[in-house]
Amino acid sequence: MDISVYRPGELTAADRAAWTALQSKAHLHGAPELANPFLSPEFALAVGRCRRGVRIAVVREGGEPAAFFPYQRSTVGVGRAVGLGLSDCQGVVHRPGFTWDAEELLRACGLAVWEFDHLAEGQTPFAAHVTGTFPSPVMDLEQGYEAYLGRLRAGSPKFVRSTFAKERRLGRAVSEVRYVHDERDPRVLRTLMAWKSAQYRRTGRSDRFAHPWITRLVHQLFHTRTESFAGQLSVLYADGKPAAAHFGLRSERVLTCWFPAYDPAFARFSPGLLLHLHMAEEGAADGIAYLDLGRGQKQYKDSLKTREISVSEGWVTRRHPVALGHRARRAPVRALRNTVLARPELFEPADKLLKRMGKFRSGGQVTDTSSKT
């Protein structure tokens, strides 16, 4: 393989255009997962402006780009998926029919190991290195919003009726309910991040927005807009004030559900569910094929999904002491986490404990918004 490795700022405009073109045509070649915005050049470049060690390997055939592999690396050769822990889709963006040798790719990138936790489907050369595969729920809009609602009603008619009834009740409780699909006011983005931080604390979770680089990344993506990519803020307003909001990434065909939150004052109206249904309706009208709700079990995801895709986690390794040491440190932690998440008899007590800790930290009542956003 002819492999060149670049820092984000070194990637040429022609290579970025070729990368985008591969994503734009992915669904035509039976690989819709490659159209995910987390696999876009814009996401890799934005992470590169906020974090050290981001690199992009370009594989060429006949002098033309055939594949792009974004990753992050440490000085000792430990590699991670770009934005590991934040990214909901990872892997190699490639031409139809292209294949690669996993160890040869790592060697060319100077990596002893490459860790992933949301590997896209169809990454066959990495399959031998997968340690677990998990469902990621999807709101399928391929046939349009009405078809999506029809499937939702067929599976859970009571949920659909009750959710729309809550929207009518919200409309009676306030003088105006308004939805904005693509809000450009950065003040609302700051409101959303404040809500999300408060939710993390209430539920005992680590506050992602306590990390300045994540806040910078979200602001950068909010201001990133091309024909094929955008950071998109969607907002449900009640009487001119945000009641629920979501920030995610959009490609031509996929909208990723990333940071949803709402004002707890409106909790009885399930504003987060209403927001997602509006996002689906407007997204379908805009050519979006599906909303990716992301890996993880949540009540609201189960309520909204109409199908699932799969993502995988694991490590691609070479025979190298750095790879052995990294995996030895990381594997037990990941295995314990997955065991707890997969077993209700373990997850429920752990979840209650986290919420209790969040209550003590916040000095208030425990309100779990994670299942309602």
TrEMBL record:
Write the record's keywords in alphabetical order, separated by commas: Acyltransferase, Transferase
SUPFAM superfamilies, per database record? Acyl-CoA N-acyltransferases (Nat) (SSF55729)
A GO molecular function for this record?
acyltransferase activity
Q: Does the keyword Signal apply?
A: no
Write down the top EC class of this protein: transferase
The UniProt record lists the EC number as 2.3.1.-
Q: Quote the Pfam families the UniProt record gives.
A: Acetyltransf_6 (PF13480)
Q: What's the domain of life for this entry?
A: Bacteria
Key word Nucleotide-binding present in the record?
no
Concerning Gene3D superfamilies, the annotation shows: 3.40.630.30
Domain BioF2-like acetyltransferase, which positions? 160-301
Identification of the protein by name: GNAT family N-acetyltransferase
Q: Which organism is it from?
A: Streptomyces akebiae
